[in-house]
Amino acid sequence: MAWQSDTRTDENSHLLRLKVIGAYSLAKKDIFGASDPYVRVELQKADGDVTIETFLTKTKKKTLNPVWNQEFVFRVKPAEHKLLIQVFDENRLTRDDFLGMVEVPLAGVAAESAA
Known about the structure:
This protein has strands spanning 2-5, 14-22, 37-45, 51-56, 67-76, 81-89, 97-105. Helices cover 0% and strands 49% of the residues.
């Protein structure tokens, strides 16, 4: 995960590029011992749970070790935003099962050189 300065719109605004690579040893949530995992990435305000933008990966069927290799781009203000990254098991008839999450404050993410 890295961000680049983009002063065309706001000097505090940056482009954040996030690549969701994969996961391993996820919990078995389906009846046949696998999961159908996907990742939900939310850009939120740092001082609360207000969601600004949401992206979803594709669902990977019947695996505990999914590989997504999907990239998402957000326009962020690092001091004001955070990322909430959640993993779910997709279900057809019932609510999706929660598998895990991480919250990433963007104020500590290093900038990538534009050169």
